[in-house]
What does this fold into?
Amino acid sequence: MPLVIRKATTDDGPFLVDIIDMASDGLIPTLWAEMAPANMTGYDVGPAFVTAEDGDFSYRNGFIAELGEAELGGLIGYVLPTTPKPIGPDVPAAFVCIEELAQLVPGHWYINIMATVPEGRRQGVGTALLNEAEHQARAGACSGLALIVVASNEAAVSVYRRTGYVERARRPFDLSNFGEEPNEAVLMVKALA
It folds into this structure.
């Protein structure tokens, strides 16, 4: 049975929340929880973000990797604006560096979130998702692809390098308010011919 990459639907909301949680090491659901009404978690409000018709985490930007009935991974990506917008006051301070890096690659197809479930790792799922991102970038006539990875995630950096991504820029990524050690956010880019 072949691995299939398909567009996400609203029914994929819970799985996309899991993918976002895995890819961000729990940071994004933590931010969602801070924006949520009292007594709600990031998992309570996360589905509203992913089932929205627009927004960075919308299912409309999502792709799911499946093998039979098993969902093995997913990505959320889209074309960045050709004219970057100013960074708004609603962007959490720790994530301003992410916005700054993304503004360096206007018009690129941006892989915002990508993760593979543990049972799907080392089966080509990540490569298939990266291939889908490249297909989407080419279909959108983008000059390249971009993603941002935490410098300490050496395994991911290695995968991206192996698949043609090169480092373009870095910014300090201070996650101490989330109990994390200081790190760096790394912008990686793959040019398309």
The chain is about 30% helix and 25% strand. Residues 72 and 118 are 8 Å apart (CA to CA).
